[in-house]
Amino acid sequence: MSVHSAGEESDHNVAMEPFDGEDEDSIVDEQEIEEQAMQDQLIDNFLAPLAVNDARLYQLGCRFSQLYLELARTSDQQFLPTPVTRLPNGQETGRYLAIDVGGSNLRVAFIELLGAATDHLETSSNGSESVSNSERSRDTLRKAQRHRVRRTLEKAWPIAAHLKMDKAEDLFLWIGDCMAEVVADSLATDTASKEAPEELEMGITFSFPMMQDSLSEATLMPMGKGFAITSDLNLGKILLAGYDRHTRRPYGSDEPSAKRRRRFALPKLKIAAITNDTVATLASLAYMVKSLPNSRVAMGLIVGTGCNATIPMKLSDLHESKAKHVSSRHPEATETVVNTEFTLGGAAPPLRDLKFTTKWDIQLDEQCARPGFQPFEYMTGGRYIGELVRLVFHDYLTSVLGLAPKALPANLIQGYALSTGYLSGVVAPAHSDQQLLIKLKATLPPPESSSWNWDIYTARAFRKTARIVQTRSAGLVAAAVVGLLACQKEIQLRSDGATNPKRSTNIIVPSFNNSTDTITSVYRPASTTPQGNGDPSTPGVDSPPSGWQSGPEELVVAYTGGIIQHYPHFKETCQGFIDRLVIWDGPQESGKSVFLREASDGGIIGAGVLAGMVSTT
Q: Which has the closest alpha carbon to 578: 382, 340, 309?
């Protein structure tokens, strides 16, 4: 890990990651150097309201921590209890239909849980007392890395815009058709049984707010992410209604052809579990990877089309009416997994008070279908990053450079025409300004009637705009993660939210650009060598805090979502912020660190895992 002392902190305090290959655009002419410096200053000054630094983000994390606890106790739209009062233990087995309805796509598959049977076989065959510690360690790693899930017959479909805007019945009829297609594929390829099963158990991941009294039932709350469906719906009932028409035999019960019966009459479905994407992500990683020593899955995080998180919370931290949803069904439960919905309007005050909300954020919010509904998501979600970049850069071109809107590319004028996917696939990977300039001329050309065209300076300004919006998004997500963990006392933050760190000057701070997956080396004593009397030399950093017995504890944040998984540098940038915020005020008790770990396809796998938890119980 590359590290810097606290004295070097100013080098990364303003968190704007340098561009890959910036030096490739060599400029020989001194006049051009001066022109580029002037243009850089122009765009940098313009983008200054979007810049974030560690001190402000730490302050935001502290404010979030206090606010989240308040929302858990008071809000009826955020920090919603789920019926999940425990995480999977890895013993669950079975084959389940799973569907994952996201903001952009629908996925359907069969999830087979393999359980821990192989673990027991390995242990019994190597379980003699003579096994060395090193062999046990290798065995532990091998078990943790073994695949516990088999996914088959998976299909995915984009959710068309008209389905988002039409009646709810139309959307769920389409979902039912897609489910029926995968079930039919399963029956067609199942040569082991002659007759189709009468019923299939299924798990559902639905990436939208919902209220639940039991794991198999859910009431859908008003939807975001571009969906116009606002009425409360019985999610299980309307979803099964969309599929039910595929269970009826069109030729009568006496149809002689078994092949025809298999083709047209599908088995009924039984909903075992309904959850949202963050809970599913948490459950999937907890199932697939047994906790290694000093490692624990602490929360789930989604950063894709939208943004959300989930975390186990004590029932005593929730409003009495929320806790009753759980205790009435699970009298013995003391905590439950909570769907935070931390992007909704209740989270807005700290963003405004600490001046993270800019005029462009306000403009985007006002132009949304539901102004004020999800202000944090408007600043971080994949549906909105592209639009925010468009608004900012359009403002720069027209108000600073004085260009007429009609001279600009159509995708810079039309709302939501500049997609986050374009920024991720075209702008972010460009290795130089010159390379980006060529791509912009080809993919975002101005009208033929325009006298303006892209040049090296506007291409550079566009990249700076995209980068600072992405960096701010990653920083805000990091502050929310740290704030949520602090809310549940998983880590400690200063109650005053002060921006001046109290840490000793010899605490090592991880580098912003070279931060690795964990910061277990952040507070590790330096190598020691015997001195004249044979005693080890004094470590290069302060002595470890009390409670540190067998190495630092690692809190795992299970993440998934298109932005954090695929947008270049996003996850690394977010991890870098988390690393520094966690030790901003000195090392955590027992050397705790926070590690983002990918739960690939957590939505659809988690649906199957939760269905397995219900069936195995």
A: 309
